[in-house]
Amino acid sequence: MQRLLALLIVVSPVLLGVYGIKQMRDTLFGILNSPYPVLWLQFLIGFLAFIVGLFFIGSFIFYRDRKRNKLQPRFSKNDNK
To answer: Is 81 among the domain residues?
Structure first.
C-alpha cells in the first residue's frame, strides 16, 4: 500500500507537467479548450503547470541524490555551520 501511495505522489507532478505541455501545444495550434476564455490565459496556465511539475520532479531527484551523496560538494549539506 505504501508503494502505491509513493507512486501516486511521484506520478502526479508528471501528469501536471504533461497537462501543461498539452495546453501550451493547443495554444500554439489555436485550439481553445473549454475552461479558458482566451488563448493567452490558456498558455499561461499551461506554462505554470509545466513549471510546477518540473520543479517537483527536479526537487525529488535533487533530494534523493543529496541523500545518497551523489552531488558535487557545493550542493551537499554542511552540518558544521
So the answer is: no
- Which structural domain range is residue 55 located in? 2-75
CA distance 11 to 24: 20
Is 40 inside any structural domain? yes
CA distance 58 to 64: 10
Number of domains in the chain: 1
DSSP assignment letter at 37: S
Phi, psi of 37 (to 5 degrees): -80, -30
Using one digit for the tens of pLDDT, what is the confidence trace for 23-71?
Answer: 999 999 999 999 999 999 999 999 999 999 999 999 989 988 988 888 8
User: CA 45 to CA 53: how far, in whole Å?
Assistant: 12
